[in-house]
Design brief:
This protein has a domain of 79 residues. The protein is built from four helices and two strands. It is elongated, with a radius of gyration of 64 Å. The relative contact order is 0.02. It starts with a helix and ends in a 6-residue tail after the last strand. It is mostly helical and 182 residues long. InterPro entries: DUF4795. Keywords: Coiled coil. This is QRIC2 protein.
Length: 182
């Protein structure tokens, strides 16, 4: 048993040593693989960079081409001479129409101003208005006095009043034929 145990321990130790060696080799292989992968990636990037530098367009040529295209697009959107003249004639016509409307409104304003001036001239000033008010008050007072005199004068005793014909009964509103005085 002892020998078997010792043999197993020796085998176990050799396996452990082999494991450590394999582990070290594996780590070194992984590190080498990573460095080689980085080298490959850098190499590919350098190759693509060289290819792009060979194939790239000159910046000045590109700007000149875009300017030329922009000029062609601007030229296409511009009007030709006949279209410009037509547009200007239309604009002149609209301006004439607006001037006619403005002059018509100005004429209406002038007429209104003349009417207002005439009305202001015909309007009474304060002195005339006071005289008119005084005249109205006097005639009103005279009319009131005459009315009072008629009412007071008619109510005197012994005065004969003319009764309206036809005469109606006060109690039944029936028409009564009477001779005055009666």
């Amino acid at each position: 048993d002892q020998e078997l145990l010792q043999h197993m321990e020796e085998t176990f130790e050799t396996i452990q040593e082999d494991y450590q060696k394999l582990s070290y080799v594996s780590e070194s292989l992984q590190a080498d693989s990573q460095t080689k992968q980085k080298t490959i990636e850098v190499g590919m990037l350098l190759k693509s960079l060289e290819r792009l530098q060979k194939e790239k367009v000159d910046e000045k040529n590109m700007l000149a081409a875009t300017d030329m295209k922009a000029d062609k697009a601007a030229l296409a959107s511009k009007l030709d001479c006949t279209q410009f003249e037509e547009k200007m004639e239309g604009l002149k016509g609209r301006m004439r129409k607006m001037q006619g409307q403005v002059s018509a409104q100005k004429q209406q304003c002038n007429e209104l101003q003349e009417k207002l001036s005439d009305m202001m001239e015909n309007k009474m000033d304060r002195r005339e208005l006071k005289y008119f008010q005084k005249h109205l008050e006097e005639s009103w007072n005279k009319s009131l006095e005459e009315l009072e005199n008629r009412i007071i004068g008619d109510s005197a005793a012994g005065m004969r009043k003319q009764l309206p014909v036809p005469f109606t009964c006060l109690s039944c509103d029936r028409m009564v034929k009477m001779q005055v005085p009666g």
